[in-house]
Design a protein that fits this description.
The protein contains six helices and four strands. It is of the alpha/beta class. The protein has a four-stranded parallel β-sheet with strand order 2-1-3-4, with helices on both faces. α4 runs antiparallel to α5.
Amino acid sequence: MRKIMIASHHKMAEGIKDTLNYITGGQGNVHAFSAYLTNAPVQEEIEALLKDTKDEDEVLVFTDLLGGSVNQAFFPYTSRPHFHVITGMNLPVILSLLLESGDGYLTAEQIQSALQDAKEQLVYVNDYVANLPEEDEDDE
């Protein structure tokens, strides 16, 4: 079973999960982890989230900041089979991997492709619009 975990400082994860549910109609096994909202140690909260995860489960964890404490807390789990941690999360990459169909586990190549596609959606719209070709008035 594929499990998606969205993990962030404060409530960012909850907002992204809510938006995913809106777009997909609640498709997938998606969990939000919002760190530092309680006094419980982050590692204990993560262990509680993962306690029912089996070795045959595929887990994709999306974190907010590379080098951030939330990302670091998930790092030790990368030695587990089928456990992937992706940082610098955004809606396009999570949506892409959530909706990835097919039998079996995701490959590193599939994950890298989804990351590349998401990077291409980071666009400075002011420049994008300024560089659009002008419509030819004679074509009307």
